[in-house]
User: What shape does this take?
Amino acid sequence: MEPEKADNAIATICRVLGVSPSGYHAWRQRPPSHRARADAAVSERIAEITTQRPEDAEVVPDLVERKAPNRPWLTDFTYVPTLAGFRKTSCFSRRSRSVIMWPCY
Assistant: This one.
């Protein structure tokens, strides 16, 4: 609603959305719910973790040689129901975008 308030009255926006203006204003004044506070805390913690890097962190070499043709492979084992039971299938190359192996038993 906030972006629309510049061009439209709150009452009009509420009518279009099927909510009462008093309900909208009550919602705006209500403190964040327990779930909203918990979500914010988790999001904040995730941001802290992803931006932290220990000073003694080891730099890991590129073991899959990403510049080589048809590498790295991307694999996804999909379980397919068959008359003989579930079977795993599909492994394909990201570079050539082709299936290179299936099925896997």
Notes: The CA atoms of residues 80 and 94 lie 22 Å apart. The chain has a mean pLDDT of 77. Strands lie at 73-82, 85-93, 98-101.
